[in-house]
Amino acid sequence: MLKLVKITPFMLLYFLYGCAPPSSIKTHNTMDDESLISHASNLDTKNLYSSNWPSQSWWLSLEDSQLNQLIAKALKNSPDIQMANANLEKASAFVMSADSKFDPVVSADAGVTRSRLSRVEDYSYQGNKYGTVYNLGLNMNYSFDLWGGNKAAWVASVNDQKAAEIDHQAAKINLSSAIIRIYIQLANAYSLEDLAKEDLERTQRIVSITRQLLSNGLTSDDHLYTAQGNEASAKQVLKNRTLSIQLLKNALATLVGAGPDLANTINRPDAHMGTKLNLPEQLPANLIAHRPDIVAAKWRVEAANKNIEVAKTRFYPNVNLSASAGFKKIAGDSMFGEESRSWSVGPAISLPLFTQGLKANLIDQTASYDAAVAQYNKTIVKAFGDVTDSVLSIKSINEQIQDAEQSLQLVTKSYHITEKRYQSGMGSQLEVLLIENQLLQAESVTTQLKNQLQEQQVALIEALGGGFEDSQSTSVSKQ
């Protein structure tokens, strides 16, 4: 007996060692955020700006009430937001399910059973007996979390819930940014429509001048036909740009989650994007942390890590406690009498003997962790790419705008001189048409470059998280 007592601990250790998960199943990928940030040479990391840039609801600084109303409606009615809400509810349900594992399972039952016993079922081997059994009782089952599997599963579900919450915020940011981009395009479309109207007025003025010159015998009919052809082309361009405005309004209504009637109520934008955004000239690499997709990916890595812990605990023995208490009686007995009382208590130990399925589950969870890490690294790389592209584009477009504005000033002066010369009969219509075409191109290029600048400014804000702030802790624990 003494020998048995001495060897029991060793047998137990050997037993547990045999149940341990195989050490050959390991993760392979590592999170590369630090090394990526250290190699972000295109971003300035010395001049650190406040971590609250850009702020939440940054578009309010544009002071356009119509834009604010469109975004507010979209955040309430958009199907994308509704989908994000559903995913968040589902993640919350998983947390509730994981949390319930810590509580005992208690159920109540009551029933009446009327039966006829055959000879085989009757212990007296007579058969043809009838009986009625009444039962009323409680059942309880409790599983001890000896190896922390339930706790790890709960932490994993909470991490997934955090990721779903951040995805919900990301959906809002993506939707608001998309609306702002189209709103900028709408403002640009109105500006291009203004240019088309100005061009139409110029062509009509040239037609009027040509008619006067023709009536005075200073030009020929073909010059008038050419001027009238240019007028017709200007009308076609104007109609096309008016159509673009209507299409952009419809696109806004679609993003908001409303019908075409909303498009008819959208007016010309009042926001002045170029003077309101006030972006920093240099950006620190640590502002990348504003991106919600990076934060959500990190939460999912932590959840995947906890799921590996859950998979490992499945290899160890588990202890359950079952208990039941109640009353069972047959016809004629008292329901709550001494003879009807019934109870049972019993522990149960389960031990996996064939672990091939458990190994497969552990491999699956390990692969899921590697996939989550790879997705995190991919998101980091994409984030730096997005920010770098926007920064380079903004710098280049600013320089292009300076050149385009200088070109526009010179072409405008040349046009006025040429038009006066033609009006006085000293110049040719060809000179006017050529310089008019150059003026139209210069005006369009300048307007479109300013539109591109505004779009890139919005893209940079979106690339930096669009004002997202992670107020959640970096770790989760259940006491």
Explain how this protein is built.
- The model is unreliable at 44-52 (pLDDT under 50).
- The protein is 62% helix and 11% strand.
- The chain contains 11 helices and 4 strands; from the N terminus they run H-H-H-H-E-E-H-H-H-H-H-E-E-H-H.
- The protein is of the alpha+beta class and 479 residues long.
- It has a 4-stranded antiparallel β-sheet, with no helix packed on it.
- The longest helix is centred in the C-terminal third of the chain and has 68 residues, at 356-423.
- Helix 3 (65-77) crosses helix 6 (221-256), helix 4 runs antiparallel to helix 5 (149-215) and helix 10 (356-423) runs antiparallel to helix 11.
What distinguishing features does this structure have?
479 residues; alpha+beta; four-stranded antiparallel sheet; 62% helix; elongated
**Sheet with most strands: strand arrangement:** 1-2-3-4
User: Average pLDDT, to the nearest integer?
Assistant: 81
Q: What proportion of the residues is helical, as a percent range?
A: 55-70%
- From the N-terminal CA to the C-terminal CA, the straight-line distance is 41 Å
What is the number of E strands?
4
Model regions low in confidence, pLDDT < 50 over at least 5 residues? 44-52
Task: Using the CA coordinates, give the radius of gyration.
Answer: 38 Å
**Number of helical segments with 4 or more residues:** 11
What kind of sheet is the major sheet? 4 strands, antiparallel
Q: Oligomerization state of this entry?
A: single chain
Strand content: 5-15%
Global geometry: elongated
Q: Structural class, from secondary structure content?
A: alpha+beta
The SSE order reads: HHHHEEHHHHHEEHH
